[in-house]
Amino acid sequence: MNKQKNGTVYLVGAGPGDPGLMTLRGKSLIEQADCLVYDALAAPSMLAWCKADCEKIYVGKRAGNHAMPQDDINRLLVECGKRHACTVRLKGGDPYVFGRGGEEALALKKAGLNFQVVPGISSSVAGPAYAGIPVTHRGICTQFTVFTGHEMPGKTEAGLDIAGIAAAQGTKIMLMGMSRLREVMEALMAAGQAGDVPAAVIQWAATARQKSVSATVATLADAVDAAGLGAPAVVVIGEVVSLAPELNWFEHMPLAGKRIVVTRTREQAGELAAGLSAAGADVMELPTIRIAPPSDRNDFAAAVVDSRHYDWLIFSSPNGVRKFFEAFFAVYDDIRELGGARIAAVGPGTAAELKKYGLMVDVMPRKAVAEELIAEFDRKGDEFGGVANVTMLWVHGEQARDVIYKELMKRQAIVDECVAYSTVPETEDPTGARTRLLEEGADVITFTSSSTVKHFMALNIPLPEGCRIASIGPVTTRTLREFGLEPDIESPEHNIPSLISSVIDSFAG
Asked: Which of 5, 51, 61, 416 is catalytic?
């Protein structure tokens, strides 16, 4: 009897392409993984969920272009399972639906390793759904058949029961068969499949690159050639295809087919990436900066400890809020230790971050600009007796402009600085977004701060021809102009929701 090893290998289905369709269990395991073995059909953005020290191994697995043969993958999983407590094998779709997950599971079992299977949403049902095709519909069909058009290399006998598939009732779905599409359609018709039955092909299903074409069984191959579609794709045959013109919701989303680059830090990209994805965009997360500790950690720590003695706390950014309170709660157990200080925030995003700690702001401009904060202090000065001789602690990043400090000092405030973090270049590219941008281009690139502009330009990546530039506000726009770039889009309210709306509006009509 084989002795079980401590490590566990998880065969995780990545779903059809949209990272939002990943199961909660699957995402949790990716975040815990010591080793991630992934193929080409997994959404690249899922790699950003890995912890920093996770070993990531690419094994390819796309028709006609395998980075590693299946037997070698099986051996690799056994090796990783012996070396790591948690190994995740991330596979497109569902591991047990034409994913060869059964072979991998048997190899792990034979080696005496623990393994678990986390099912994923199969493209056989998700692909048609994203193209407006329900695989079953009462009154049209109550069953469906899934088959693969991909033959095992070296196989001499026919692998498909063409006659059985042709005779089957209901919807028929073919996976991995684009290279043999014409051959399979002709074989089905020769076996009795009616040529006038509606049929469709959905390429890159459930991703922003999705394209679909509808025809009939007899004309589908010609329609696909004319549309220039190829693998990976799902083929659907059946009367349910006729519902696509009415039910195709995904390809009519406002940013469908648009490739948009997000340059925010990896930790902050979520809100912007999610909002753009929800509008149908193919989001490429290309973080150009990351948040690091400040140069002088002792000064930062001392400022946080003394913060409860100030009349005002001024926060310039959400990052400053997060870093300040991480340090604050390392010293104090109770938010009330903050004392009775009034609070000011540069913009709604910073105010929203403060609200997470149960803190409301006394002064906040609608526009997230330092000059606007000073103007707001001037407008509301009578409400709190002005700022002269008032003690203020300004919490900000190392590279922040000194407008707040200088202007408040001019007004005779007593201002101390609390440098909470530093913005440094992001050196890693775990999702391969830089290579994708160079090879595939983009429709829009978004900038959410001057730092993202400066560090993107330092990468020396040429802007794709026709690519629109989107700026979150005037300060970022000013930095873009310093590099000779004129933004096509500027967010009027200088926050993430407004930036998303502005990008969507730029493609309206």
From this structure: 61
284: CATH: 3.40.50.10090
Is the predicted pLDDT of residue 154 greater than 50, yes or no?
A: no
Nearest to 362 by CA among 349, 373, 353, 372: 373
Residue carrying structure tokens 């299946």: 70
Pick the residue with more confidence: 348 or 81?
81
Strands (E), 204-337: 211-216, 233-237, 259-262, 282-285, 289-292, 312-315
Catalytic residue among 3, 34, 39, 161: 39
- Scanning 9-161, the segments in alpha helix (DSSP H) are 24-32, 70-83, 101-110, 123-130
Question: What is the side-by-side order of every strand in the sheet holding 468-471?
Answer: 282-285, 259-262, 444-447, 468-471, 489-490
Q: Is 61 a catalytic residue?
A: yes
Give the pair of three-digit tokens for residue 417. Answer: 């600085």
pLDDT 10s digits, 373-408 = 999 999 888 888 888 999 999 999 998 889 999 999
Q: Are residues 27 and 81 in the same domain?
A: yes
Instruction: Give the count of beta carbons closer than 10 Å to the beta carbon of residue 180.
Output: 15
Q: What is the pTM of this model?
A: 0.73
- H helices present in 24-90, as ranges: 24-32, 70-83
Do residues 417 and 440 share a domain?
no
User: Angle at the Cα of 225 (from 220 to 230), degrees rounded to 5?
Assistant: 95
**pLDDT of the residue at 152:** 42
* 299 tagged catalytic: no
